[in-house]
Amino acid sequence: MSTMPSKNLETFANPEPGRDYTIRMRIPEFTCLCPKTGQPDFATLHLEYVPDKTCVELKSLKLYVWSFRDEGAFHEAVTNRILDDLVKATQPRFLRLSAEFGVRGGIYTTVVAEHRAPGWKPTAAVTLP
């Protein structure tokens, strides 16, 4: 069992590649370091994606998120880097990453980054009475 952080994102075959469906994850223990002060920054990551051929494996995602703990990064940069790494690993139809950072200097920051595969169109939302 690995107990070390890792930048390796593992995947597995999507069990329903013919269907658009959404996977949502809440990752409440993200930490990195402020690049200016070296103090820890804390965030909750909200990951939503529509997989294509592969899905991200949860343990590797946990170790990947852990790998940022000792890295200095601006909120905007680290959110976009995580999105890019997830897109590279899984090639999803759609992926949205929202990073809700804790207060820094009296300011809460939320960064939202998205990816859409070329040509992918979401299915119409269903509104029930």
Radius of gyration: 16 Å
Strand content: 35-45%
Based on CA inertia axes, which overall geometry fits?
globular
Spatial ordering of strands, largest sheet: 2-3-5-6
Number of helices: 2
**H/E order of the elements?**
EEEEHHEE
Structural class: alpha+beta
Mean pLDDT: 95
For the report, how would you describe the main beta sheet?
4 strands, antiparallel
Characterization of the model:
- There is one protein chain.
- With 129 residues, the chain is of the alpha+beta class.
- 19% of the residues lie in helices and 38% in strands.
- The protein is built from two helices and six strands; from the N terminus they run ββββααββ.
- The chain has a four-stranded antiparallel β-sheet, with helices on one face. It has a two-stranded antiparallel ribbon with strand order 1-4.
- It is globular.
- The N and C termini lie far apart (49 Å).
Summarize the structure.
This protein has 2 helices and 6 strands, in the order ββββααββ.
Structure keywords:
129 residues; alpha+beta; 4-stranded antiparallel sheet; two-stranded antiparallel ribbon; globular
